[in-house]
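can u pls check wat happens w/ adenosine-5'-diphosphate
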Amino acid sequence: MNILVLNCGSSSLKFQLISTSLEQIEQRADRVLAKGQIERIGGAGLLAFQVAGSQTARSARPVRDMRAALEAVLQWIGSEETNIEGVSGLADIDAVGHRVVHGGESFIQSVLIDDVVLRGIDDCVELAPLHNPANIQGIQAARSIFGKAIPQAAVFDTAFHHTIPEHSYLYAIPYQFYRRHKIRRYGFHGTSHRYIAYQYRILNNIPRKDVNIITLHLGNGCSIAAIKGGDSFDTSMGFTPLEGLVMGTRSGDIDPAIIGFICEKEGMSVHEAEMLLNKASGLLGISGLTNDMRELIAEAEESGDRRARLAIEIFCYRVRKYIGAYLSAMNGADAVIFSGGIGENSALVRSKICDQLSWCGIAIDPARNAELVDGQEGVFNGEGSRIRLGVIPTNEELLIARDTVRLIKGVI
Ligand code: ADP
């Protein structure tokens, strides 16, 4: 089957067209046929489309809204000049799989979308006001173009974390706030952590229940998960994606009293303070330069910029603290697996994180670590390390495509 995977953001649409089926999943023979993205939806759109193995075609043109963006993608897929293996038009697309950020407590696994599900996703808007509306727009755009004949699936960022026990998902605030407003840890990046855990199990040929690992998704957004017996046991993002690790522009953990203090001192509204913590903090806020780790490392190395170095230091320190905390929380782990743009490509960040973890028997092989800089899978722990260290490139789109097929075939 050819599955169109959509990841719709507030002003962007990313897509992949993936060929997969139950047999292909079994043999791990599923393939990306084409991919691309449209940025700056609602204004002067930037389009970048690529057929697998070919050059990326870039262009710019106004893109009014999510529907117009999806139409542009489908026009490209169906156009005569675009030569996608086995796909000559819309009729060759069998289903659509959507990344949906928040599933609340209602959606604990991927589902086929019908009107009830759509209403359920809408009910979660107040939990994810920045994300779910864009996901809903994507679903509605796909529905209006394809009609209801083509199945659509929703794969939730929160779902994998539904197994987190009560003692780690509840905040120590008055319990009625959980009852009344569902304030609790939900966790995000679930599709990524789930994919990494699955891939770890396949690579090591072990049953799911034996997967006891710590997974690190270090990209623009960053989170860490403790995976115990194959299930998510704890994760650093919380009620929103703001909690936990230091990220590109997010602060991660701070003393919540800082928000009121900033509001008072800077004359900001709570909303403005929250935007500050989401958009102007993290690596960007500390360095005053950029949210991009690669650029920060270059800056630190080339000019010895003090604040670039500090940002990298704080970033790695926070990750290391969380690894220690999760090793305690889950009574030890067999492996720590790195993923995401930073985790997959930066030997420097990985080695800084693993520094000072010898107390728990973690030892790194510097040469192997230095080799893993191109987003390839690999192991980089030293010979005697008590805990395995590895890199597993994440692939959320593939998991969304696979879930879509499995839902259609009734095996979820
Ligand atoms: P997203 O979370 O948006 O999917 P990515 O997973 O692509 O983002 O991660 C983006 C981050 O990865 C950026 O901070 C980028 O600088 C960083 N990154 C990519 N390659 C490298 C590299 N070689 N060294 C250090 N950081 C890198």
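The mean pLDDT is 97.
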